[in-house]
Amino acid sequence: MRITNVRARTLVINLIGVVVGYSLCLLQSVDYKNASVPLHQEKIEEVQRHISSDDHVRSRRPQGLQNLGGPRKILLDCGANVASTVQLFRETYPGGTDYIIHSFELDARLAPYFASYSNHVLHCPVAVAGKDGNITAYTESAWFPDKGLVHGNDRLWGGGGIFVHDEERDDAKAGRQLGVRNVIPMVDLSKWIQENTTPEDYVIFKLDVEGAEYEILEKMIKEGTFKWIDKFYGEFHGSLPVPNWPIERRLELKSTLASLGIKQIDWAAQNKRYHDMELLQKSDVPFDAPGVAGDVYSNCSRSPGGPARLALTVQVGMNRKAAHKLVETIRAHRSNMPVTLFVYGDFVQEHPDLITKWADRYTIGIREGAPFPAGHWVLQNIKVMRMSMVSAVQRMREVGLQPAYYCPDGLSERVREIAKARELRLIQPTTSFPPTVGTLLTEDNYYQYMDVFRNPRAIRILHERISNGGILSLDSDHLDSYMISAFLMDYLYENSGFELVSLDTCLKS
Ligand SMILES: *[C@@H]1O[C@H](CO)[C@@H](O)[C@H](O)[C@H]1NC(C)=O
Ligand SMILES: *[C@@H]1O[C@H](CO)[C@@H](O)[C@H](O)[C@H]1NC(C)=O
């Protein structure tokens, strides 16, 4: 019972903390620096020795500030948890793939979550703190079926802290269930920053360390370490029991930060957002793009007094080989008809060479950041949708594209809302191959036949559904898209009677 009351109070204090945190937020980065401090060359080299450089994507991209010996772009990810900040940053932060990321995490069992990232240094298990040494870290116990509720919910978050309530430390079922303890290295973060980065580096500092922030920030202020910091994200934890840090001292620290012009911007990786995400990700859809942001288009306007119009599009899947075959077949067709290719953010990131080549000739639209299993995109909550779409647009920016069209994998109010926020025009093809409504392809009516019989069946189905023109889409993941492509284009070009147009023309009234 007592624990429940403590938890309820904690929740209220946490909520107040969030509100206070928000009101302290500032939307632009603050320059704390004093430009006259010299470079610490040996320290740059020491850090660079730790950096893996196997990132094939990055190595193809301009190096930006990463030139050897020059200032670097660095993200300090303190309280890294399950790599949620690394993921959010790499997916959505402008230029996020150019940053060296140092992640500090005290729970050794979370280390595997960082394995896939390069240009990344993991310090784990390490607790960031106000001094060097060793310390006992309390971390969450492994899941078991009747582990019990945390704040009324089943919960599994990994991580833990060095400042914890007695009952969560002593009982694997209380509070945050911090039943595992280990003595781990503790790092004086202020000193580490000064020794491992230079004031000339562009340093983004994210601090979410379950109460350890007070000692760290006080020491950073005392030692002038904010001269090394360009942007400060994080969270305060007002209710965690930090010895010698009564509420008055915590408030005083916050007002000192405010008086020094040091603003903490809210970073909430668990919500897949940071306070200035929308500001940094303002839409750059060309102002003269036809259509209205967030509206859904599946038909083409008719040319005045002329024939019905048809726009050909391709939904490019993650299979590069299949996509390449289909697009090259389309490119080789003598009609030179305009085509729009919809691609996932991940496809752009993995095959920038292909996208750049295709963009010379074709309109590039977007799909989601990455494919979801069939039917699962529309079920996602708004936070996941936002990260996915911001990521998709960001990947396009990195290859110099400003897409206006989005072909979603399913429509819902949330999908429309997220598209509108990015000023994207939603495209729902009039008909698609393979068809998703009406006569579907079955073993009996289609798949039992060999290609010579399939080809006309597939084209007939498409013909019947686009008798009024509109938007026709081929899915590159279906091998028959390639098989029928040249025959289909012959039909469209020679016999359909449609005016074959770009999506731009299609949407213009
Ligand atoms: C921390 O613990 C390690 C391993 O037990 C030990 O070698 C080291 O001396 C300790 N460091 C401090 C500062 O106590
Ligand atoms: C778009 O095309 C579909 C199918 O051809 C048709 O049912 C619908 O009325 C059209 N919508 C508009 C706005 O013209």
From TrEMBL:
InterPro entries per the UniProt record, alphabetical: FkbM_mtfrase, Glyco_hydro/deAcase_b/a-brl, MHC-II_Gamma/Thyroglobulin, SAM-dependent_MTases_sf
UniProt feature coiled coil, ranges: none
UniProt cross-references to Pfam families, sorted A to Z: Methyltransf_21
GO cellular component terms listed in the entry, alphabetical order: extracellular region
Domain Methyltransferase FkbM stretches: 77-219
Chain ranges passing through the membrane: 12-30
Alphabetically ordered keywords of this record: Glycoprotein, Membrane, Secreted, Transmembrane, Transmembrane helix
Main localization category: secreted
Alphabetized SUPFAM superfamilies for the sequence: Glycoside hydrolase/deacetylase, S-adenosyl-L-methionine-dependent methyltransferases
Gene3D superfamilies assigned: Glycoside hydrolase/deacetylase, Vaccinia Virus protein VP39
Compartment annotation: Secreted
One record GO biological process: carbohydrate metabolic process
Superkingdom, taxonomy of origin: Eukaryota
Name of the protein in its database record: Uncharacterized protein LOC118406650
Organism: Branchiostoma floridae
Taxonomy of the source species: Eukaryota, Metazoa, Chordata, Cephalochordata, Leptocardii
